[in-house]
Amino acid sequence: MLGVFGGTFSPIHYGHLMICEAIREEFGLDRILFVPAQIPPHKDINRVAEAEHRLEMTRLAIMDNPFFEVSDIEMKREGASYTVDTLLAFKALYGPETQLSLIVGADSIVQLTSWRRFEEIIRLCRFIVARRPDTSDDVLDKAIDHLVSDYGAVIKKSKAVAMPYSSTEIRERVSSGLSIRYRVPPCVEHYIQEHRLYR
Q1: For residue 54, what is the enclosing H or E element?
Q2: Residues of 81-114 as b/e, b for ≥16 C-beta within 10 angstroms?
Q3: Interior angle at CA 174, CA 172 and CA 178, nearest 5
Q4: φ and ψ at 157, to 5 degrees?
Q5: pTM greater than 0.85
Q6: Which terminus of the chain is more exposed, N or C, with fewer CB under 10 A?
């Protein structure tokens, strides 16, 4: 089973890594693909690092985990990075019988019906949801019930809770000259310093 974890990753941090490792073990995933978005459709592109920097930071962050891989599939595609296009590409690449598990936060499941061609996404994958401190269990459970009953979605709720780390907070700390130690892997911290990102 192949896990798919997309995001802006500006920068990738320990919260991303820890939740994916917990989900990999809990659901017996063979590996997890980290997919940095070239042009995130729901983010202000002017507030994130350039795509090649985000891709390289992701590579550095996961290089010591044999179950993690980075995919540049969205970097090679022009225009906004839509999940439905990425899942279709992975089905073509790995075969239609490959089970794709899309790893998302609770906030994403609550907003799923606003995603581009969300009904097609539901047919292409199952979802593994990590709870988040900013989304109550009641709100999450209602969203899951709605997606399952009305659209036939397959959704598994992880026992893991996403850590309250934030890429936004990390960028703000860098721009203020504050430490980001213990928020990102040392290799990512060094890369940010070396390339003077977020200043």
Answers
A1: helix 51-62
A2: bbbbbbbebbeeeeeeeeebbbbbbbbbbbebee
A3: 100
A4: -100, 120
A5: yes
A6: C
